[in-house]
C-alpha cells in the first residue's frame, strides 16, 4: 500500500517495547495507520518518527539522551531524529561529558 515506507522491524519492535501497556489491536492499528498516512513521502522512515512521538507523547524534537537511555542504537537514533550518525555520536558524547 505505502511504497515509500521503509521497513525496519527491529526499530518498530523497540518503539513498541517503549510502551508501558500495549493498546488494543484496533487502537494499535489506528496508531500505525495515522503515522503512515500523515508521514512525509520523501522520508521513508518518517512514519517511525511519528509513531514514536505519538507513543511517547512528545512534541517537537526528540532528545538524544532519552533515546540512548531507552537502548536505541546510534543508527536507530539517526532514523528517528533525522540527524546524521556522526552528529548523533558527537552530540551524545558532549552531553555525557556534561553529566
Describe the structure in brief.
The chain is mainly α and 99 residues long. It is built from six helices and no strands.
Shape: globular
H/E order of the elements? Answer: HHHHHH
Based on secondary structure, the structural category is mainly alpha
Share of residues in strands: under 5%
pLDDT averaged over residues: 89
Annotation field: number of helices: 6
Residues in helix, % = 55-70%
> Which sheet architecture does the biggest sheet show?
none
Low-confidence stretches: none
| End-to-end separation | 45 Å
Provide the gyration radius in Å: 14 Å
Number of strands: 0
Structural domain tally: 2
Mind explaining what this structure looks like?
With 99 residues, the chain is an all-alpha fold. It has 2 domains: 1-60, no CATH class; 62-99. The chain is 62% helix and 0% strand. The chain is built from 6 helices and no strands. Helix 1 packs parallel to helix 3 (46-56) and helix 2 (25-37) packs across helix 3 (46-56). The longest helix is centred in the C-terminal third of the chain and has 14 residues, at 85-98.
Amino acid at each position: 500500500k505505502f511504497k515509500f515506507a521503509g521497513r525496519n522491524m527491529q526499530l518498530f519492535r523497540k518503539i513498541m517495547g517503549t510502551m508501558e501497556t500495549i493498546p488494543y489491536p484496533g487502537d494499535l492499528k489506528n496508531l500505525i495507520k495515522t503515522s503512515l498516512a500523515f508521514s512525509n513521502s520523501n522520508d521513508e522512515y518518517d512514519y517511525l518518527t511519528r509513531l514514536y512521538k505519538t507513543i511517547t507523547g512528545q512534541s517537537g524534537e526528540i532528545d538524544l539522551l532519552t533515546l540512548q537511555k531507552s537502548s536505541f542504537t546510534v543508527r536507530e537514533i539517526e532514523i528517528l531524529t533525522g540527524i546524521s550518525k556522526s552528529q548523533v555520536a558527537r552530540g551524545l558524547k558532549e552531553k555525557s561529558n556534561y553529566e
